[in-house]
Amino acid sequence: MDLGIAGKWALVCGASKGLGYGSALALVQEGVNVVINARNGDALAHAATQLIAEGGRAAGGRGKDAPKVLAVAADITTPEGREAVFSVAGGPGRDFDIVVTNAGGPPTGDFRDWNRDAWIKAVDANMLTPIELIQATVDGMAARGFGRIVNITSSAVKAPIDILGLSNGARSGLTGFVAGVSRSKIAARGVTINNLLPGKFDTDRLAATVNAAATKAGRSVDELRTAQQAQIPAGRYGTAQEFGAICAFLCSQQAGYMTGQNVLADGGAYPGTF
Q1: Alpha carbon distance 103, 117 (integer Å)
Q2: Fewer CB under 10 Å: which end of the chain, C or N?
Q3: Helix (H) or strand (E) holding 118
Q4: 129 and 78 in contact (C-beta within 8 Å)?
């Protein structure tokens, strides 16, 4: 299926690895120009090299029909980081057609141990930063008649996990905001905003969560991984590549009638009907 987004510009946050990288890869393979962002410059440069090897091109590189890959190492949770993304040479400025928001989840732990600073940091990264990015780009999308915003959140929004309290709270706040703004006047102007809720995907974030859960339960990491996968109807963890494919579809022309949705990708783990 041709997703109809070749030649458009996408911003993909947290794209140096994991689900963010998987999303950037799927978009590049669809011919989308991407600006990838993460804080770790070395990891981000490596990701850019991989994307170029998969069919993209560096700014000024050969192959005029290949999509551009621009990398901006910056903290997107800060005004300076967002400005660096919007002002990167060769990029679209604020005129992105697609924005994929993604931030590393806050630390796991016991809510009794989190002070106000921990909560503010979690809310800033996982709620306020996506809102800032939406605010900066959505009106331009509406003026041009096309826009796709996908927020990578968590399956914990639907089924909260006790050790992920900071994430549960901050991401649920974003979900409530999106439920309203996605159904505002922008919906009739070709702009959709959806949340993509990953379950257990085999990423570094999963490894950290499993390690914390294994320590809390007094079990080995391998034992817990095996037990977790046995509880998923699909019988395995997901891959970043298949997550990216779902993200790319939500960014497609064909997904224009989907907005304000929480799309759960968890191998069937969530047991509810709604």
Answers
A1: 17
A2: C
A3: helix 116-123
A4: no
